[in-house]
Amino acid sequence: MDNLQSQKLFQNISALLENARKRVAIAVDQAMVLTYFEIGRMIVEDEQNGENRAEYGKALLKGLSLKLTEKFGKGFSETNLKQMRHFYMSYSIGQTVSDEFKKISQTVSAEFETPHNQQFEISETDSRKLFPKLNLPWSHYLKLMRIKDLNERRFYEIESFKNNWSLRELQRQYDSALYTRLSLSKNKDEIQKLSEKAQIIEKPKDLIKDPYVLEFLGLSEKPNYSESDLESELIDKLEHFLLELGTGFTFVARQNRITFDDRHFKIDLVFYNRILKCFVLIDLKIGELKHQDIGQMQMYVNYFDREKRIDGENKTIGIILCQDKSEALVEYTLPENNDQIFASKYLTVLPSKEDFIKILEENQ
């Protein structure tokens, strides 16, 4: 066997093993989540049979923790058992599961025995009541359970699964108030859809956030920085910036030069959104937005629409990121039926909860 053939065989087997490991890890994590859900159910139902529920529940968890830890080792402290109970109580109501997930749930349930030494079995109806569609790792649910607003919690749950967010990414999106920022320009029915289907991108405005939060750049430590500094930092941390931009974005170019009538212009950042099938141009501005900035972006958008856009693609979107802006200036500079040019503020630090509320109220 020559070296080339041997290397190809090695690569194929390596890929197979890596995929197998990923599948095993996902299956183990899912089984653990389902197991914790079932433990939570058993604890809740046992507590409900106690005469003095508060005292009984406290004693139950303490004794159960000691016995489980003795037999199975770490992972069954009173705190952890309380989290499992909370998990079941948070996710057991008003949920349904797919047929495939129901089978997994029933398999896990069958591993447990009732006090009468009989295998625990559930009907299809009971399964749909008991087992929600739990697709995330346990660490994500520990975070999600702390979100009191059910609509907000459901939004982050769907987005985490849809975009394969790590726990760190989930925490970052929550800290930057993604749900609240997306809710600002929506009516009651649209906000409800956020909790049912998460972010749905159907038109240019659906892509826009105001403000954008760029705390990952670390620019708060610099008293002064230029548009070039901001652009360089965004490129250096492109993965973080794509996460902040949202779903479907791919990077195209930096300082993209366009030329006409022997004049040269440079667009700071060019992206493409695969969902809306259009170019997205981003211009970075330090300080307050000027009407000339909006006119410049209008020129960039018109150029891309006429020279770069091909059949089947939608109109180009332009986003101007600025430190400050006058809503009136933006409103009167752009046409009434504008759906291509947007101006949004950016923040270089995560504000406090109180400051965030004030910022969001100012943008309403």
Give the arrangement of secondary structure elements.
Elements: H1 3-48, H2 53-72, H3 78-91, H4 99-109, H5 124-130, H6 138-144, H7 150-163, H8 167-175, H9 178-183, H10 188-197, E1 212-213, H11 227-236, H12 238-245, E2 249-260, E3 263-273, E4 278-288, H13 291-308, E5 317-324, H14 327-333, E6 341-347, H15 353-363
Parallel strand pairs: 1-6, 4-5, 5-6
Antiparallel strand pairs: 2-3, 3-4
Description:
With 364 residues, this protein is an alpha/beta fold. It is built from 15 helices and six strands.
Provide a short characterization of the protein structure.
The protein is globular. Helix 7 crosses helix 10. Strand 4, helix 13 and strand 5 form a beta-alpha-beta unit.
Strand content range: 5-15%
Return the average pLDDT rounded to an integer.
81
Q: What's the total number of strands? A: 6
Give the % helix: 40-55%
Give the ordered list of helices and strands: HHHHHHHHHHEHHEEEHEHEH
What gross morphology would you assign?
Answer: globular
**Termini separation (Å)?**
69 Å
> What strand line-up does the widest sheet have?
1-6-5-4-3-2
Rg: 26 Å
Question: What multimeric state do the chains show?
Answer: single chain
> How does the helix and strand content classify structurally?
alpha/beta
Number of helices: 15
Largest sheet: 6 strands, mixed
Uncertain segments of ≥5 residues (pLDDT<50)? Answer: 94-105, 107-131
